[in-house]
Amino acid sequence: MKLCHFDIFEDRCLHAITQKNTTLPLRGSVALHTGEPQKKVLQNRQKLLKKLGVSDFDVVLANQTHSSNIIIIEQNESKGWDSGKSAIDDCDGLITNKKNILIGVMSADCVPILLYDDTRQVVAAIHAGWRGTRDGIITKAVDKMITAFGCRTSDIVAGIGPSIGVCCYEVGDDVGANFDDEFKVETSNGKYMLDLKRVNQNQLIKAGLKKESIEVLSLCTSCDNDKFFSFRKERGCSGRFLSIIGLR
Ligand SMILES: [Zn+2]
Asked: Which of 28, 90, 192, 200 is 20 to 30 A (C-alpha) from 131?
């Protein structure tokens, strides 16, 4: 299992982003919801925990629906990990302050974002496609960390992960119209190249995070398709990669 990491979290919390890997079954996909053999997916998931050295951790995943729904995980119990059936339903953001549990989001072009508050010891994993970004899911996640756990925005550190970049994310006016001009470039054929990572980065800064507390990986799922799954580049691939975070 190949992994990549954000520098900004240092060693203070456990986190990882899984990469594509042609030596693994299903190229290392960890998605149970895309119709691939469950057993192989579960094997890949076990390899991930083993590589992180936390085979005893619980893991919680959601049935992501491009919503802006966020759930706080209050119990040390795996959900959506050994079987898709137990995943948290209709949810695109997870937050927890429990130790020995990993929370994660799956993606293949959408923006995965991990948040960490070192002082209050709270982590969050957010899936932000264009709909979630339009609906301000990352702002809602920060708000929830503040109201539920007393986090301060000056303590929150964020990692914005690999997603389809402004280089490759062409959208029509139906999508583009939802975002300010500063985040999109109009193309000669009347479409837009949209920078979803930067919209989310901007929302985090507006929420009160320090600019230097946000790391944005420049990796593009389409350009860097050898490392990450891209639904667009692969024309509807079944693979997904996982961005995961937790407290020891
Ligand atoms: Zn690209």
From this structure: 28
In a domain, 63, yes or no: yes
**Alpha-carbon dihedral 73, 76, 81, 82, rounded to 10 degrees:** -150
Ramachandran region, residue 14 (left: φ > 0; alpha: ψ -120 to 50; beta: rest): beta
| Tens digit of each residue's pLDDT (9 = 90 or more) over 200-230 | 999 999 999 999 999 999 999 999 999 999 9
Q: Is 41 inside any structural domain? A: yes
Residue 138 near residue 125 (C-beta atoms within 8 A): no
Q: What is the CATH number of the domain that holds 101?
A: 3.60.140.10
How many structural domains does the chain have? 1
Determine the structural domain holding residue 128 and report its residue range: 3-163+214-247
Instruction: Calculate how far, in angstroms, residue 91's C-alpha sits from the geometric centre of ligand 1.
Output: 27
**Distance (Å) from CA 226 to ligand 1 centroid:** 12
* d(CA 123, ligand 1 centre) in Å: 29
Residue 172 lies in a domain: no
Any domain includes 45: yes
- Surrounding ion ligand 1 within 5 Å at CB are 165, 167-168, 220, 222-223
Nearby residues of 238 by Cβ (< 8 Å), 6 or more positions away = 26, 29, 31, 34, 35, 36
For residue 103, give both structure tokens.
Answer: 């929370």
Burial 208-241 (b: 16+ CB within 10 A, else e): ebeeebbbbbebbbbbbbebbbbbbbeeebbbbb
Q: What is the pTM of this model?
A: 0.97
